[in-house]
Every structure is written in C-alpha cells, then in structure tokens.
Design brief:
Layout lengths: L1 E5 L2 E4 L4 E8 L8 E6 L5 E7 L6 E3 L7 E6 L4 E6 L8 E7 L2 E2 L3 E6 L1
Parallel strand pairs: 2-11
Antiparallel strand pairs: 1-3, 3-8, 4-5, 4-9, 5-6, 7-8, 9-10, 9-11
Length: 111
C-alpha cells in the first residue's frame, strides 16, 4: 500500500489549495478514503471522507462549505480542494484508508 500526498504550501487567510493523493497497492475504487490532519501539538483530526464510488461524502463541521473531497478511480487519485482557508486549518494533511496513511503534506495558513 502506498499513499503519496502533494499540493500543500503556504497561503494567506482566505486563500485556496488543492491537495492530491496518489494511491497504489490496493483496490482503490472499493475503499472509502479519508483526509485527516494533524495541527502542531495536537492529535489527528478527521477532515472528510468519500465512499468508493464517490457518491457519498461527509465533512467535519469545521470545514463544511469550504472543502470539497473528490476522487478519480480511473487514476487512483484522491483530492481535497480547500477554499477560504483559515489559520486554524494549518496542519499536516494525510490521506488514509483503514490503518494506512501517507507521509502527509504541510498546509500553512498565515493570518
């Protein structure tokens, strides 16, 4: 199993970023995928999930209306579009499924 995130960076408050996760080594289209994050000094926090077919998804209340999760099963890719970013969104973002997660990508939002 390999999960490789990309797309993080430094943005100002109100800015946008798009994260990507390349998945391999498992039946991607059959798995519910999740984005989680870990802010400095804090534990992991669930951000969003999407089912295997991409027809059902959910968001943590803190990101609802600002983040959009999507996937491309033909490319084994998971995405997270993040809009109207806030300093509280600063964290390392990971894609995950089951007990697996990638190495993460840093998102920093300056005030």
């Amino acid at each position: 199993v390999q999960l490789v995130e990309s797309g993080g960076g430094l943005v100002h408050t109100g800015g946008s970023l798009s994260l990507s996760c390349a998945a391999s080594g498992f039946s991607f289209s059959e798995q519910t995928m999740t984005w989680v994050r870990q802010a400095p000094g804090k534990g992991f926090e669930w951000v969003s999930w999407i089912n295997g077919g991409g027809s059902d998804m959910n968001y943590h209340n803190s990101v609802k209306g600002r983040f959009v999760i999507s996937r491309d099963n033909a490319k084994n890719m998971l995405y997270l579009r993040m809009n109207n970013l806030k300093p509280d969104d600063t964290a390392v973002y990971y894609c995950a499924y089951d007990t697996y997660r990638g190495q993460g990508t840093q998102v920093t939002v300056s005030s």
